[in-house]
Specification:
Elements lengths: L6 E6 L3 E10 L2 E11 L12
Antiparallel strand pairs: 1-2, 2-3
């Protein structure tokens, strides 16, 4: 097979989203990439945290 398919894991928390991409090879799972994405704070119409 020329291309390996990535399996994606996503974990969403209140202030950030975390994602990983792994592939399964002959010796087990291998991490390909990871991402940490901060999320914006939610504000109400007056500009305060809700």
């Amino acid at each position: 097979m020329a291309f390996k398919t990535w399996q994606i894991g996503l974990h969403i928390q209140q202030h950030e989203a975390l994602a990983i991409a792994v592939i399964r090879g002959a010796s087990g799972w291998s991490l390909q990439r990871w991402w940490r994405l901060p999320l914006m704070e939610r504000l109400d119409g007056r500009g305060y945290d809700s």
